Protein 1
Amino acid sequence: MNKFQRKTLFDHRIAIVVLALVFTTTSAQSKEDFECPTDAGNGNFADPVTCRRFYQCVDGYPYLNRCPSGLYFDDIQKFCTFKDEARCGPIATTVSPATEAPLDLALKCDLSECELPYCYCSKDGTFIPKDLAAEDIPQMILLTFDGAVNHNNYDHYMRVLDGRYANPNGCPIRGTFFISHEYSNYQQIQNLSHAGNEIAVETISLQQGLQDKGYEEWVGEMIGMREILRYFSNVSNSEVNGMRAPFLKPGRNTQYKVVEDFGFIYDSSIVVPSNKIPVWPYTLDYKIPHECKSGTCPSRQFPGVWEVPLNTHYVESFEGGVCPYLDQCVLHNHDADEVLEWLQEDFSRYYEQNKAPYMMAFHTNWFQIKELEQGLHKFIEWASQLPDVWFVTTTQALQWMTDPKRNKELAAFEAWDCRKPQTNTQRPCNLGNKCALSFKLGNITDTRYMETCQDCPNKYPWLGDSEGSGIPGRDNYIYQSKEPAPNEESESETTK
Ligand SMILES: *[C@@H]1O[C@H](CO)[C@@H](O)[C@H](O)[C@H]1NC(C)=O
Ligand SMILES: *[C@@H]1O[C@H](CO)[C@@H](O)[C@H](O)[C@H]1NC(C)=O
Ligand SMILES: *[C@@H]1O[C@H](CO)[C@@H](O)[C@H](O)[C@H]1NC(C)=O
């Protein structure tokens, strides 16, 4: 069988082949029999035999891994999660048709044309803005948290962000939340926003396959989520600057058109494969300076739109694998000190080279495993002692990039100074409303609980009805741009 045949047969036959072998071999041998799909690149793949195990493919070699006890591998989200929430694999993936031309619609970076603050690019994406020397600039660390915020994770997030760790200017460290709607607690989100954390959007529904959907769907998901945050967490539209596509599957040109049309400043959905030197954020004025593994990156230029890419995490031995989200690397069999060492090695690739922002992207499940959470605290404690390390929000990182400052100028850098008002979000109420709301999905009606400092809506807010009015399809978002400064009240929504 030649390589091509093996590849095309993979989806249909490999499950049966591996299943048959497992009965006659030990698991150590079956590991060698699992073949990493050649067309899918590095990543985690379901073990066809059991939902408790999965393979991590690194440069074509499969590493067998086990989920922590009680957790199962979810083949859609590609990490271990609670047994009753996990979707066991292998789940056949349909390769999306190439509906748009590949990345050659955009031109190569032209340094003579591309100037800060509006444009930033470099030959291979790894250069420091304004040609500053690495020893003169800060090492930024971006903590990002994806998905719903609620009682399961809020206290864990607060333990990182409650002020116990500070930046060199004495301000508490801050993070960025890419919020999805279902199960979110809007009083808690309001508190995070009021404290100076950045609120950005993922989507309302976290639907699968959004990368292949059209403009209307992306508008409904992204702008609807931004509206929900405005109604129920008092976060004004002008403070929601960023978005992240579910499952890091960007929506080709369609998603970026929405980013552009509705005044977002950046997207953070594109993964950089395991580069030896990490890539800095760039604007989409030119071709993306690295391989696009998801296959759904934008193919044309979007001048002035920033991409804050996710450089993959890994250590030299590839122990734990290669992952854009830290919880997708397999570190749960490590103790807290080993997690610390792993993070330190990964971080040193940035700190000792070009000091590209070190993005630590998490889902809630990192915080469900004590060793991982403790390892993270040890890492933050260690890193926050370094004189040139700053934990900033994604927008604060871009504020630095558009106006790069040397270390000695940072004490007076307003964008990072918490003594300046950093948000319009009001202080949240002490006791929120706990709303029990009916929620209709298809022909099933369910109840969802939602906490907010606002009055309870009639229905659970959802696509097309972000206010929860109970009138389906009520929202009608119209084109808007964020420059010049928007008029909050009239900017984004009219009722039909
Ligand atoms: C908001 O955060 C502060 C500390 O930052 C805490 O004291 C307060 O209880 C929080 N309020 C809510 C509603 O979570
Ligand atoms: C936030 O709350 C204040 C006080 O209730 C209100 O005046 C303001 O319009 C609200 N902002 C948003 C974006 O809803
Ligand atoms: C609800 O929808 C499912 C699938 O769409 C269908 O099989 C079922 O019969 C429907 N139930 C009712 C009561 O309509």
Note: The chain is about 25% helix and 20% strand.
Protein 2
Amino acid sequence: MSEANFDFDLIVIGAGYGGFDAAKHAAEHGLKVAIVEAREMGGTCVNRGCVPSKALLAASGKVRELADSQHLQAFGIHSGPVRFERKKIAEHAKQLVEGIRVNLTKTLERAGVEILRGEGRLEALQRVGLREPNGVDRLISAKNIILATGSDPFVPPGIETDGRTVFTSDEAINLEWLPRWIAIIGSGYIGLEFADIYTALGCEVTMIEALDKVMPTFDPDITKLASRKLIDGRDIDAKAGVLAKSVTPGCPVMIELTDSKNGELSEKLEVDAVLVATGRVPCSKSLNLEELGVETNRGFIPVDNTMRVIKNGSPLTNLWAVGDVTGKLMLAHTAAAQGIVAVENILGNAREIDYRSIPAATFTHPEISSVGLSESDAKELSQKDHFELGVVRSYFKANSKALAELESDGLMKLLFRKDNGEILGAHIYGLHAADLIQEVANALARRQGVIELASEVHTHPTLSEVVEVAYKQAAQQLKKASRN
Ligand SMILES: Cc1cc2nc3c(=O)[nH]c(=O)nc-3n(C[C@H](O)[C@H](O)[C@H](O)COP(=O)(O)OP(=O)(O)OC[C@H]3O[C@@H](n4cnc5c(N)ncnc54)[C@H](O)[C@@H]3O)c2cc1C
């Protein structure tokens, strides 16, 4: 097919954060673009993820703050009992979702992107089959195709969901009711955020984690400090090393827990509700990839750092994949960044994604964030590349702003190379950790060293001085090492 005969320069399948950014960027750079969406515009992030969950966290966070009479009394403030309306909190999240979805759709239309409703699949490397909502099937072609079909919640075998008493984050974001006692299966960021919401709103939580400790994906030092406040300090009973072998919806919900190691039945629970937060699976089944000879990894589409889809070990020229469906750092801003990288390459500007500089945050109260390597990965790298690993810790309890807020529980851990000062990673727990990590992410993107960073002036008094102190400590270690 000659270039002029294609219906579009680019077809994007999936209008989540990844597809949205790719389609907008391509249209703004003069490409003729169509985006195919089977459900609501905006995908998981806008409709079932970041946006509604952060709205619920904002409202429940205020309830927690106002209900913390001890904390308020330390300022000399005396408040009465806090009252809240669950329905209004849910409505706040719903309205925010609708507003953002409308804006996002208008933005695409204004950029000149053609929005096609229906389910897309690959018919060939440059051809998409579109099943429209009315059942009509049609074929459209494009020089390039980006797959941005995202992910869905993973529900392990043995767990039955009914959407009402046993549900995933897809339903939890609607906050349809407040169970007196809820079990949350999984202590990753989604489980932790919902535990934050539910406990602030007066629910009792049992947290079930299959691995041998809660918060297994976080830095161990951060976990130690954060879990004291986020789990032990709240109405949460955490059970690690146990598997939710069977969950049966109803009133009550029946849970059978087995020991993760020996598989023996360890406990039976009867709770009011269960939230299943055990990870996410890619949406790639209906794309026809196998027919085109593309082998997926448990459904995740293999890509190189230019976002080209890999077939038989080699990148394809005109087929790209971005976002959760690639399984890399499954976050909205990763999806968006990958989308831009794919389009830049389509436009002829060679670009590669830099995963090391992509930050991640958990929006609990207080927050947790990270960027770059974990300490164990950094150690492994230091052994492989023969350099000494530097680790410094900066505490919120030495920060004037945190002390003024009476929120001095927090820690930042900075990992760097002791030979040249390059930052390798950072892990933060404390007030506004999600904002603080951005400064380190930017420095990491530029591969800046701690000597240069330690000379940058930070506003006083701000929480950003926690980062400044870490940079200064690291620079001192480096100078000391070079003197020896
Ligand atoms: C509860 C929760 C909270 C989260 N909080 C955050 C957060 O605070 N920050 C953050 O960065 N990330 C967060 N995430 C993760 C974030 O939502 C995802 O990483 C992000 O949405 C991925 O974007 P995507 O474009 O890859 O896929 P998605 O957003 O999943 O979009 C994919 C779209 O493709 C469509 N689609 C799928 N198959 C087809 C097909 N065959 N034809 C047509 N359309 C199709 C789907 O309907 C969907 O609209 C959260 C996720 C959850 C569940």
Note: The chain has three domains: 3-153+281-353, 166-278, 357-483.
Protein 3
Amino acid sequence: MILFLKKVMIEADVYKIPRARIETVEFLQTLIIDKKIKSILEIGTGNGFSSIYFAQIPCVQNVYTCEMDPFRITLCEQNVKYFNKINFFPINFFEFNENIVVDLIFIDGTKRMYKDFFEYSQKFSHKNTLFVSDNLNFKNHLEDNENLEYKYKRITNKIDEYIDFLKKNKNFHTDFYFDNGDGIAVTKRAINN
Ligand SMILES: C[S@@+](CC[C@H](N)C(=O)[O-])C[C@H]1O[C@@H](n2cnc3c(N)ncnc32)[C@H](O)[C@@H]1O
């Protein structure tokens, strides 16, 4: 890992900014190289760790990424400014309206809104775009599922609903990798769609 990326990773951990796990970005790197992914749209930049990781992969030409938290925006602007491939948008993803279509969409924002992200991101996709959703194992990190705070219960229910939505969606096919990183789904359009 390049030294600068390590600095960004440590910064995320110091400020308790959620970031993709190393296993997750490694998994994504393999997928990106294998599928010759050129363009990525990321929902949730954090302080820029995963964007910078993607920008290091030679076949990637453009990373578009949105972050709406003011403090994270400040950190991110400092971190991504050295990377020409990264197009940073300090906005709520639902305000993102660039005229682009990308090869891969990385869904990594607020967990309870994954289905909304998936639906809004359709307009930035083509027939072979991959939709990658992270953190599907969120509930495994909560110790006592019986006595969860309402907030966490709501998130775990929403993630379960999202998994179910992907499983039942006839227009898309999803491969689930629950043993990888923090639980990853890779979704693509069904052949006849
Ligand atoms: C898990 S972190 C992203 C980590 C980053 N992808 C990485 O691995 O380094 C999720 C981020 O999404 C941001 N976020 C959540 N909902 C968003 C939205 N609707 N638009 C833009 N950013 C959002 C949060 O503020 C948070 O910083």
Note: Helices lie at 3-14, 22-34, 49-55, 70-80, 114-120, 150-168.
